[in-house]
């Protein structure tokens, strides 16, 4: 029996993608060679990289709008360093919105490079909402935010209007909903939620904002060098990039972001409706800021824990445990999660209340 | 027909490793979940990481000798930055031996951090030998060298005796030959030659040399932080780490480095003997510095090129083209390359001469 995988990340991927990936490890493109034992400069892999980059621009509706697409390694945590290296002037400053553990880590790294203005934070409420009243200083070199907070189950619904370049860590909700992506100057995302396996990081960057800081940037951390080498300054993470390409192609074939957003909204609605209806459960995030990717909730009565855990385990559900800093449960319902799996969880929640 | 894969990297991996890796992408450890869709903090993956680290210490004979093992991402090129960040004092200097394109890139990055003393270089001979007469300044914070030069087919046979901490990029020959690895303070290696697929980098570091530079180090680039988090400061490259673990286990089961070194010596000898015997071929590297991993050679008479290329292609050989900066051919004969495949190439070379 295939599990209902609610893991927060690395997380569920489409079955057909896993099948193709598994085959490619044995024999890629009928080359009689494994995907992971051919040169990254071979025509077959260069085509994979190119296709992945095209799919990103296509899905985000950023074609011919002056953006470059990179598939790097090091995870989003390395972007916490690359962003200030590439965008913060040597005597400049940056503005950050603090909406959770990952924002907070990004802020910590940026402070190594210069002044950081934390424009707002929801830390004193354990990040259970998204601050909405704040001002971005017009002299900031950039404004950084985190679109979705996996741990706390919150998501930015409205992004600020600002003339300051906008950088967004979209690791946990990229490709899940329609946005005007051209409002952003840098978008980055670790692959391991909606895009692929752990091991590659997507960076989409507006070319014209680069090269302005006056800093000496180590080559591996320099967006301009990575762009000039088409993400192959050094050997890229071949397998993660390939699986990301397959997942992006799967999404495109499904009808793209518009189509998946409808399904995502439906899945989230099913769970939030049950949380709000069922007296045994309490949602942890402010209603207006609830994430459509990570649904966090507590049991109203902890004595039901054993029974609930037994029931969902028996139903074939995995990865439902909440993050230690919030407790309770977290249902991560990324793009690849079928409606049917969400229904299984809702049914268990209903049954517990009976 | 399975190809004879002489690719310089990413490169050949053992068939049984590819088979297990392919299976794990569909169903890992009978969890009814893919390896790439489970949490990196799950017991199943934590065990993979632990096993991989243990195998490294075991194979390199570094158990209980004060070393930590890291599986990072970003490739060896990121180590070009991490090494000076972690070892070069703010007012210090480092000594580098320049034996090829990769040494030269390492030097370039180190110069962003402070003074770099290039103790010797074979650049004016297109890196066709390993310099042996040089002095390592005793006040250097560390000495950096590259053990094997894939492009030029050279390999350091004797490492210097020095009191200066020794750092070695062993990307292309780690686990291929017995060395006293305890002579080194930092060993690093991109996985994609003898260890696994592209996407993870092995770092073996002597704990007591860290924390001495006075630099503020970004978290992702700080060996001490990575050690304290057991290579899971952020989500590690799960698939590349898993396949590396499988490959290290395969090597251990074969009898470890001692056993593979005998086979590697035999394979190299077969090719070098043929190059030296056959008037149609010319080796490019100085004999005493010839690599046992990458055998580089030219045709004595370029008019034979078409015939030779046709013959090895027809024999099922792939990846034999030399790097553009040397030309000719490069047979990469890493650990996973069977003696039989080398024999196929030798036979083609013999046949060309007939």
Tell me the radius of gyration of chain A.
21 Å
Low-pLDDT windows of residues of chain A:
none
How many DSSP H or I helices of chain A?
A: 9
CATH superfamily of the largest domain in chain A: Type I PLP-dependent aspartate aminotransferase-like (Major domain)
**Greatest interface and its residue counts?**
A-B, 62 and 62 residues
Named at the architecture level, the CATH assignment of the largest domain in chain A is: 3-Layer(aba) Sandwich
* Total individual domains of chain A: 2
Compact summary:
The structure is a homodimer of 354-residue chains. Chain A is α/β, with parallel strands linked by helices and 354 residues long.
Tell me what you see in this structure.
The structure is a homodimer of 354-residue chains. Chain A is an alpha/beta fold and 354 residues long. Chain A folds into 2 domains: 240 residues, Aspartate Aminotransferase, domain 2; 97 residues, Aspartate Aminotransferase, domain 1. In chain A, 34% of the residues lie in helices and 17% in strands. A 7-stranded mixed beta sheet of chain A has the order 2-10-9-8-5-3-4, sandwiched between helices. In chain A, strands 11-12-14 form a 3-stranded antiparallel beta sheet, covered by helices on one side. In chain A, a hairpin with a 4-residue loop joins β6 and β7. In chain A, α6 packs across α7. The radius of gyration of chain A is 21 Å and the shape is globular. The first copy, chain A, starts with a strand and ends with a helix. At the A-B interface, α1, α3, α4 and α6 of A face α1, α3, α4 and α6 of B.
